[in-house]
Fold these 2 entries.
Entry 1:
Amino acid sequence: MYNLIGAGLIVIGGGIGLGQIGGKAMEGIARQPEATNKIQTAMIIIAALLEGLAFGALILGKG
Amino acid sequence: MIAKKSISFIVVIVFTIFSNFSFAENKNQPEQTLGNPVDTQEEIDAYIQHHLQDAHDFVLFTNGNTGNHIGFPLPIIIWDEELHFFSSSKFHHGESVAESNGKYYVLFHEKIYRTDAEGTLTLDDHNHPTNVRPLDFSITKSVVGMLLIGTLMLLIFGALARDYKKGPLPTGFSRVLEPLVLYVRDEIARPNIGEKKYRNYMSFLLTVFFFIWFLNLLGLMPFGFNVTGNIAVTVCLALFTMIIYMSSGTKEFWIHILWMPGVPYILRPVLAIIELIGYVLIKPFSLLIRLFANITAGHVVVMSLIALMITLKAAFGPVVSTGMSLFLTLFISIIEILIAFLQAFIFTMLSSLFIGMAVAEHDHH
């Protein structure tokens, strides 16, 4: 029970973080459209790292 | 361009409809409830679990009226003091005891246990059998999938390599592959590993990229099955990455891990422990969990949306519930095709990032 609540909290945190990453990347692209490719790549890497954390919490919390 | 788009759209629609059909035919009679249509939540859950699991035989359809399974068996190879080699048809889809060289084996939840002639299993409190489990080297569904994709890759990339021997321009299907290979080289390997050393790691990165991508797509095909959603496969792929970046680390990489310059002496052992755990454990763990969880979650979502046609039948009637399920499954299948590519890209990207960390040459300051 408690591990599920903990996993849920971590996933909420991951969701907030992903929103921040996406939002800031959009702002960056809007300001400098010529840097779109670089920003996108960096965004995907950070998003993937964060996603790994959230999934790890989910798997460990379920097990 | 428009023609290309509409063709791919039609392909997606056809695939989705076919996967619905194959599900619907299977759906009516899973193995646990022969002869009765699946109606309850438990049966749907059991079906999804069954789909996600690795299996010792292929079942394409199950005829509910007769209880016949249509499919083909796979070879079973087990080591139990001596080598046993027989066909999985001896198990009759887990319904009977298989005999080999005077020993008896039974299939329980896709795991092989040694037993006696009657097939008795002693269960403990958690419903796990306490019988001896022999070492299982069987060619399971996942292994077949990997061999299939391996052969396919050997054929198409072999053709690409032969094309380059003849001249600078590839022909036929190889023209589709060339930009993808260049994409992995120019967008993934070069910026992350560095101009000097990226060549050594191209073979690994290309193999892992196309292997994961093709396996993900195999999971989305009708009659396809889930290979990258099997944690053993992803553990192995992540281990390869770990071994490669650990073994290619430069002297400076190891100095920065074990005796970090520029920080107080008292902190250095603590940092060494943290860095070692990070490189040996956490980085491969995040790689393997990401791929495994993404693909498994994708399959669960697709299966659950298909199951909507059963769960919502009582509330909205068969036509509306089937239509809803078809529409949502189509929508999520398109996203899954994107995810199949994205996960292969991320895995390759992070692998090359870690390799890049290990081989980087720092400026002395």
Note: Chain A has two helices and no strands.
Entry 2:
Amino acid sequence: MLELKDITLYFHKGSINEVRALNNISLTINDGDFITVIGSNGAGKSTLLNTLAGTHTPQTGLVTLDGKDITRWPEYKRARHMGRVFQDPLKGTCSTLSIEQNMALARRRGKRRGLSRGVTSEDRKIFAKNVKQIGLGLETRLGDSIGLLSGGQRQALTLLMATMVRPDILLLDEHTAALDPKTANQTLILTEHLVTSQQLTTLMVTHNMNQAIKLGNRLIMLHQGEIILDICGETKQKLSVNDLLAQFYAVKGEEFSSDKMLLT
Amino acid sequence: MSLFALLGALEQGLVYGIMVLGVYLTFRILDFPDLTVDGSLPLGAGVSAVCITHGMHPVASLVMAMGAGFLAGAVTGILNTKLRILHLLASILTMTALYSINIRVMSGPNVSLLGVDTVIDPLIRAGVPGYWASPVLFAGVVLVVIMALIWFLYTEIGQTLLATGDNLQMITSQGVDTHKVIIFGVGLSNALVALSGALIAQNQGAADVNMGVGTIVAGLASVIVGETVFGAGSVPRAIVAAIVGSVIYRVAIALALGLKIGSFAFTPSDLNLITALLVVVALTAPKIKARLKRC
């Protein structure tokens, strides 16, 4: 169980560019939750995710994992418990290394690394089996450099790598936003498959309301660094895009102007 | 060019080649331009020379030199990661500090090794002619270092080094502390540079505080020349290319120094200018070539 308690986070605190990105946020992520996070640009979606991942340290508040205070843990230390997929498909893999080398790095996430082989024959067997399930025909190309793959292929691999060692939470930061619609859809199907088959606790940031409604058991809407909606269970299943917009007006009582959120 | 001159250039290319491997490790693998080498080369030379004159076995003095080089590199790594100083500046700071440290180590600007046993003497006593002894010995050392380095880069830790230079965000999310990797990587690189310096000192019979000037530029030139001539498709290939580049570079320098146009001739002090120009040309040539092709 991951918990955020009274988290406030400023960027450029004390300067004229000061921005309050998260405003006194509290959130409990239960084991097995698949939470989708929506909100307009600058609402704090990515900041929320990065605060969980340890990229940003909040000025006030606590981040706890199974009751342990991890607020001051650096990113690499938290990574032992977290799988991450980024918006930029290039960020999740090393272009100069081969597919199997990348996967081997992921398979040792959170484990002690020593002077044994970086990629073993046992690794290769497992990787071939794993890669087969994403159905891109990569199982015969394990020795190829990642730089030769397309963005969609890389994103699929990153997903696979993030779940190779079972994470306590899977963090997805608009991981389909940079892909073409068809590839984005395939990536989403893979996401759903991996999350449900392993029953992973997941937090997925998205710009797409339909996605946010369709996937997961819980939906959170952020606005100006605050959680303005937190819906789960049956209520969420019955949700439509119009409901969401109506809810948004009701809570904030202000005009939705030209915003990317409308372009679902 | 005579056989002696060629052997001399080969010897220099091999012994400086170990330094080039260190530069390759930081510059290409870690993506960390490291100027510490200008200070860690004479550091290795000085430590080795002082150890030998105090009665230590020449081979053991090499280990001491590598240890000192590792520490120097680690300092640069710590300045960069823990104190968040830009990598280039961090390495310049260490390099500058090393100038004073090297003079302290040697209790003066140089230490002579004339009349004491070095790693080359056993070979000469075994009957190997003097002009063959150093090239053969250095070739052996280079071979061992190449094999060790290739082996290391394919271990789990070695792979994190490659990944750190490629994609910091990726390897951080795989649970690796990149600070540790950078400190260790820059340390390892400078251990190799110091080993190179120690062997150079033992070969030429003296360690000198100024022998490191221009090391980084020579190292870069060798790496780039090697990649251009030999290619850098894979890690083992790039490592061999670094040595090939180092030998080509030293042969080219020897040829340039032997060149006479009328009354004009290059002197050894022109070396740094030639090398700097060579690096500029090597770095810009691909871009100029691409632009010419487009027209």
Note: Chain A has nine helices and ten strands.
